[in-house]
Here is the input.
Amino acid sequence: MKYRYLKTLLLAVLLLAKVYHSAHGETGQTYQADIIVYGGTSAGIIAAVQASRSGKSVIVVSPDKHLGGLSSSGLGFTDTGNKSVIGGIAREFYHRVYLHYQNSQAWKWQQKEEYGNKGQGTPAIDGADRTMWIFEPHVAESIMEDFVKENNLQVFRGEWLDRKNGVGKEQNIISAIRTLSGKHFKGKMFIDATYEGDLMAAAGVSYHIGREANSVYQETWNGVQPLVFQHNHHFAAKISPYRIPGDKSSGLLAGVSGEPVGVKGSGDGKLQAYCYRMCLTDKAENRKAFARPDHYDPADYEILVRLFQSGWNELFDKYDPIPNRKTDTNNHGPFSTDFLGMNYGYPEASYEERKKIIKAHEDYQKGLMYFMANDSRVPEAYRTTMQKWGLAKDEFADNGNWPYQIYVREARRMVGGYVLTEHEVLGKKDVPRPIGMGSYALDSHNVQRYVTAEGYVQNEGDIGVKAPRPYSISYDAIVPRSNECKNLLVPVCLSSSHIAYGSIRMEPVFMILAESAATAASLAIDQNIGIQQVSYSELRALLLGQKQRLEVKD
Here is the structure.
């Protein structure tokens, strides 16, 4: 009797295991393609599309279930810079956005004529070249999914790289990667399209985290920048950082560091702040009120109360409009959605530790919105207006209407044979072997909140220096040194200084570089050579044929 019971139980367990593996893929199973793309960001999908169009088999291994990264996670008010230098599949993406909004059915919560045409430095809708640069999150995700279907891309979702032992590598060549589920992915070429550079790091490629000292690359705007104010993200008024105003013995308020700010121009391991790009709406039928989040403590927002008391009145300046009465809401002002100083450990953190950091950011930002809509210390006019806003019910429906992806503005940056610096961005140095272009300003969000020598709270790290004209990005900035890895390309966490990355780190630029990376990978496969040996003249000809923009013509 006992034997029969155990036999039945064993058969049941085996049957359940078979059903599970049928749905999720066999543990330890190996998949093979010419090109393996790690990361389901906008760059990852564009790289895969180009690999497919180049006639190569390709697999996307994505930790995320939703594709498109920040582009489909709230960043719909595109940081275009000079849109004339956005070409290739990136421009095709924005053309598809345009086509979507030409359909009257796309305008559910407002008429197209009511929307206006405000973009970031350019009209949102450009009828002349049939592009649109502003969009809702679900529209971007839908376009990414269309790319997947049209190109028959094989995408493995929810697959996380085993960062400790998951990269098989011999003689500086990656043979395969393994995910935590046990799946193996073999390829000839690999592309790291993550915001964190996890594959790059696991493959033993050199990288840097934080700000370099200005002396490293003879820059001006890198390193610590105390009392440099180039946006409206600093405290103009004298506000006490202490729990009891003016009383140092009472302790510091939440979010204020007690560490010295650092010497101007010196390097550190600190990062510009992260936040979520929230999709909000004031359309009552589509609005979800801000709820009290986990671990809510109104004391976390005391500095904001004092900021309001000082007369600050820019609360709604970055509720940038996107279609259908929604916003791409970004950080603005000295105390906002950026969670200063709370992301320093993120790049090197384990997956579990990252979850904790991400949850802390989520709780802080949700708490901020709840606080502004409900706390009696918030001026009534602002509080009443905030109550008219809420999360859009028809976005991120399976995530409580909260964006899927935190805005990782900067994590690891590769240190390759060529490092882009402010000199290239500001047009002071020629760029060899260009494969794409950028045009945005040197742009860093604040890095730390500290106490000044006079005893007041202040932010540090916010930089905004305009690029005089579009600049080229070198092929050598997306490939590692050959003695480190010969078959990896890194179009997102590329080789650049902190402050240069502040310009490069825009979604259109990541798409541009990803397309060029996949094109180079295909060439290397065709010729059976390392990625550093690719003929630039051949690569250039292909990129121009793909309508990539490589340089400004004088």
